Amino acid sequence: ARLSPQVPTCWIRPLEVGQSHVLGKEVTVTLLDSNHCPGSVMFLFEGAFGTILYTGDFRYTSTMQGEPALRGRHIDRLYLDNTHCHPHRPLPSRQHATRQAAHVIRMHPRHQVVIGVYSLGKEALLVDLAMEFSTWVVVSPWRLEQMRLLELPDVFTTEEGAGWIRAVDITEIRWDTLVSWNTLHPTIAILPTGRPVKVTHPNIYPVLYSDHSSFSELCEFVKWLKPCSVIPIVRGGICQAYFQKYLSSAPQALPDLKIPKPVQESVQQQSKRKAQEPRRLLKRAARHSVPRGVVYESPEKHTEKSEEFMGVKVLQQNCCESAFCSEGCTCCHPGKEKGKEELSGEQPGVARAASAVSQAPVSDEHFPTGFAGQYLLTPLNILKQNSSQKFDKLVEDFFRRGEAS
User: Fold this and answer.
1) Which ranges carry the DNA repair metallo-beta-lactamase domain (predicted)?
2) In terms of pTM, does the model score above 0.70?
């Protein structure tokens, strides 16, 4: 299902990618293409607090080294998408994964092909397969509208039967739907994901297609950028040790300041609420017994068997070519279960950012000098927990001061 932004439109400011934008008089932000799903960007922040690069979801490519905003830039803190930060899980390039998906299709010349995708992402895979097999890709009306807004090649249609490749929501790829589809026509399903999945039907084929950087790509990126520190943005992920040898020896520019008391108290209250959630979630789960669709496995169970999915092996041909078999791990996406998609102030990377907030207490009347620096280094949800009314007023005053200047 499509999700509308949970942000009031009055706070949304469209920014051009590749251009530097000044916020007030204290912070400059530059948006850079992150090579993830359409419209995804990295954020480069510069100010008195130093220089911060927040990758968000991204897949590194060597062309990023030609980006003027990054070339020769000193980075104090790198908030890194560490989705696949594990040296013992292979992850091929997207080009190689596309060839693997095409091979699966060629093995089933008389079958209809259903591809499970999220609400956004994997569009390039669909286009490449449509061009490879000279067929339309059948999609829902709202997805067709989305493809047109993205100005993708005209290979999509809503007409049933016009093409023999169909894109559906990934939750539809499960045992009961495969049984139903195969009663009408021989059908296979392709799951383009880098995450280990539990295969529930012999006609489901996982393909290691990921929009996140492999381990070797992450190493190449950090080695080239040479930041002072690396902070993982995926909750529970530990990757700093892998990059220690690539870090700059320059002194840390950002001070490690304490979180103001109002924020600390807010975090403590949130932790208490979190502790009560498991029981409520268990009760809720007991009331819902509908099919779960794709069931993701814990990546830790597949460290040594990353190409085997619950007894069904991913095709091996060309999969171990040195040009493509970069080391990495697993993938996630918009409806994904990993911590990154649930970014909050409690995550490792963001929690470290919160520690850089000024000690100055937050006044009820006005925000102290240096608002932009504190605002940037404090998770928005933590700021807002103090008082939603105060939060809205502070942001409104900040934008007014920026416009006045």
Assistant:
1) 201-235
2) no
